[in-house]
Amino acid sequence: MARPDELMFAPLGGVGEIGMNLSIYGLGNRHQRSWLAVDLGVSFGDEEHLPGIDLIMPDIRFLEQERKNLVGLVLTHAHEDHFGAIIDLWPRLKCPIYATKFSAALFEAKCAAERNPPDIPVTVVPSGGRIEVGPFGVEFIPVAHSIPESHALAIHTAAGIVVHTGDWKIDPTPIIGPPTDERRLRELGDEGVLALIGDSTNAVRDGRSPSEAEVARTIADLVKAAKGRVAVTTFASNVGRLRAVADAAREAGREVVVVGRAMARVVQVARETGHLNGMQDFRSADVYGHLPHDKVLALCTGSQGEPRAALARIARDDHPEVTLNRGDTVIFSSRTIPGNEKAVGAIINGLVAQGIEVITDRTQLVHVSGHPRCDELRDMISWVRPGLLIPVHGEALHLSEHARLARASGVPKVLICKNGDLVRLGPGEPGIIDELPSGRLYKDGAILEDSKSRAVVERRRMAFAGCVFVAIAVTAKGELIEDPEVDLVGIPEKNMAGEVLDDIVFDTVVSTAKGFSRTLRRDPDAMAESLRRAVRAAVAEQWGKKPLCYVHVLVI
Length: 556
Description:
This protein is an alpha/beta fold.
């Protein structure tokens, strides 16, 4: 029988994957629970497997069903994989949102850039503050990460305390904001922590992540040594890195020119919230061409190879205001997110072919991760001393390695779960007790589709094997009135023998139609299906692939 004060945890995104983070906590019994959501993020579509899909979001069917019991949504920080789905999904939930100042301001700027955004109120919480959300007391504990005002959450309940780390690292010398709050985490450990829900992104890497201060020194040296123009690309949200780049430019006597809307938006929000206090003014892209080559540094979007971002346009030499030439330098102060390697590689190769020097983290310390490596994970465990650890924010290997490390560090109970698993944290023996509805939503233009939608499935098939469209007009007796219309899309023009595939398909349609039985001729749907099968078989014989095939039979 369920206890009245049971504390539940369920990931609806972000476990077994990196991105699309959504965690929920439930307090109560099986008849009535209050739910608290933490983060609501996106991951990004892969053109190879999901052509035309811009964003992937968690399926929130369960939260929609429990909407009257959803007491709030709390944001750990303002990275897209943690807050990028709010604009699209919040109208289905309409729950209170809680975030610190920078996250709230960046979200407001993101909404302002949308065409018709919903009016989404956000309650601003001070860094280090605590709020009461239904039966949950939520404490915002500052942690170092690659965006300002990142926080772990200490979730206080009648059943115990949970520490939800969010994204974090240990950086004794961050460029912006305080270091991870070891003192408060140790205090929580002294109080007793029921469960630690922890970031696993770098659990496969030994040692410790280098500090942002080390990256700042490397960038300063590189900018000082550069002869021509310098362009730096990084994640726009990494305000500490932007500050380091601006300091390097000032030391080298260069003006900073901001290139790209996303970069300009973050810079504006960072200035408004005080994270760029004391920095020189940045210039807009329209002054770039008027500055001497050795007196300019362009801060660009496009570190992930996005085709419409500033750096990709510069590399193609079709940016209206910014150009680079032989002898100039481009610094990729970022890591390439898995899946973006081809796009980033194409930009790098294009720049190198033009005689531009390209510097990446393969040869210089121009980027560090915002996530903890193994020694940092051990530190967190030693501070918090949880009774249970659940690895999240990682693929299967990351989760497994984090779990192995936790067991070796003496954590009494370690549990690996998957998206949709409902985990009882306590009181009593923790474990997976049920499975909640979970899955993915695809943003296809302006429309949200589920993963089984016809458009998504068929577009993937079309991308692989093209499509054939056939239209025929027949009499009431099923006899052809005129030549059929045939259109092939995404299919080779000729077979290996040099024969035109359009002609082969046309002949197949005519011969199949002439061979229809009297019974078949009285059924337009049966005629269409017979033609579809014949056409697919004919193309497969000539090409080795079976395309989608659509046949329209018009009876006149």
